[in-house]
Amino acid sequence: MRRAHPARADGALPAGAGRAPVLRPAPHGRAAPDPGHPPDGRQRPGDPRRARLPGAVRARARAAVPAAPAQRAVLPAGPGAGGVARPVRVRAVRVPAHEGERRAGPRRARLGRAGGREGARAGDDPGGVDDPAVARAGRGRVGGARARAAEPAPVSGSGGPGRSGGAAGAGADARVPEVHVLTPGDHFSPRTGSAIPTVVDGLCAALPAATTPRPRVVVADGTYPDRYTSADPVGYPLATARPADRYRDALAGRLGLPRPGVRRTLRPTLTDQDAWEPGVVLAHNAPQLVPLVHERHAAVLYAHNLLLRTYTAREADRVLGRAAAIVCVSGALADQTAAHLPARLRDRVRVVPNGVDTTRFVPRADPARGERLRVLFVGRMIPDKGADVVLDAVARLGRDDVELTVVGSQNFDAGAAPSPYERDLRAKAARLGDRVRLLPFTPRAEVAAVYREADVVVVPSRWAEPFALTVMEGMASGVPVIASAIGGIPEVAGDAGVLVRPDDPAELAAALEALADDEALRRRIGTRCRSWARTHDWAWARGRLDAVLTEVAGVSPTPVG
After folding, report:
1. Contact at 8 Å (CB) between 75 and 521?
2. Does CATH place domain 373-535 in 3.40.50.2000?
3. Going by C-beta distance under 8 Å and a sequence separation of 6 or more, which residues neighbour residue 165?
4. Is CATH 3.40.50 the classification given to domain 178-351?
5. pLDDT tens across 323-342, in order?
6. Burial 109-124 (b: 16+ CB within 10 A, else e)
7. DSSP letter, residue 536
8. Model confidence over 359-414: pLDDT tens digits?
9. Alpha helices, DSSP H only, in 22-117?
């Protein structure tokens, strides 16, 4: 059995650490060895070394579902030799590597030029925003090189862990002004469950309260008025998108022409940019916004999904040519994005993983299990999120001492009419009786309490999610998280989460069986998950974003101490 290596504070292992076979998403959701994993022992933050499960637990997991193929669920075990905690697995399974090195960095922007020239080209269609289908391509090695993860800026804060205190600095005269531009129509409010506003709020809230200048968030007029208080909102009138615009724009992009529909929709977001102090404009999920940013600011594309799937390399070069950096929320997404970029832009890709609020997502006071093992799924009711997979897994178990709570709706609206997929889920749930509860979408302000009631959180995604916030939130709540080994999820789960093959109810059932039968194992994994989350909170993520701002602006982003 191979001994685990102690991880560094940033989640990476020492250089030269031994490597197990790498798995990557393959056709039909199966995992296949990746022959191209870096031979030098380098690793992405959160890339675990996995040993084998103890014989008794391994046997239980294999026997849980007799009709299933050989099980490959990844289950962490207890402390290893020398007191170093180590993860273990049912069978040989490996998660993707994360971090390689590049020598060249993002383009350093020159801030403060008066006036500036407005770009004449725009990019992708806004319809790709938050669409799980954009990340289906999985991940792979790009051109023999990988994007570099941003190193954290030196920090010394006065606040606590979780959301604030980690990104304060000493000795800096000023902070680079930053403006976050949300996708048009998105809400900067805890009433929504959308990932991008959650990420922006987490990054901004991680700054000390006395930070000057405060970050700005560009958000459309008419969106939810009860906004996050972590940043100053900048309103604008929302331009109505025409239904045919996204298709016309995609065709125009293929022909090497501007995408006028997207430009018309996005232009109002930057109406006031000449009044802003020269700084960094972060375009969230909007590559087409980059050429519209005046040259007095540095423009950064902040990618939460694969945005360039309809782009040729030529169009990507034209649209993102003046991007000072291209930030991706995971190494998996960075690989996918780099595959669509011309060679000259690939060295501008940086990885800034999301964090989690460890002051709001906390373990419940009494972790003891009740009469039933409480399994929780939180997410949108769409096939890509895999709620039906966990329903099938619970049905396979056939145990009365396991109950499932499914929280979510097709969109972020509890009152919306159910989709055909939701109706199918309800029919499946009805056949399981009181072992399943279906609850509608719950606002983010209330969802932490839902996690605290769970014994196990499942994230059975079918699609290659670039970054699953639900994994981090479950881990921060101190319970085991079982998630699909696809996309950026293995990076998020680190060396603490339980990984299973996507779209495999049998393997998920085996993992649930093992956890249901072993309370000590559940507690060990829950403790490990909480520890992982505490070292990957929003202050940690903020430090990595500040490192990017330092690179692109040439000015320290740390505030006055």
Report:
1. yes
2. yes
3. 157, 158, 159, 206, 208, 539
4. yes
5. 999 999 999 999 999 999 99
6. bebeeeeeeebebbbb
7. S
8. 999 999 887 777 899 999 999 999 999 999 999 999 999 999 999 999 988 777 76
9. 55-63
d(CA 216, CA 557): 15
CA distance 168 to 220: 30
**Residues 179, 111 contacting (CB under 8 angstroms):** no
Spacing of C-alpha 147 from chain mean position: 16
Angstrom distances, CA of residue 550 to CA of 67, 110, 314, 422, 558: 55, 12, 28, 46, 9
Cβ-based neighbours of 149, under 8 Å, separated by 6 or more: 44, 45, 98, 99, 331, 350, 351, 352, 353, 544
Burial class (CB in 10 A: 0-12, 13-18, 19+), 383: middle
Distance CA 99, CA 330 (A): 10
DSSP-derived 3-state class of residue 327? strand
**CA–CA separation, 479 and 497 (whole Å):** 10
Q: Where in the chain is the domain with CATH 3.40.50.2000?
A: 373-535
Residue 404 CA to residue 112 CA, distance in Å, equals 55
Q: How far apart are CA 16 and CA 7, in angstroms?
A: 13
Contact criterion met (CB below 8 Å) for 311 and 340: yes
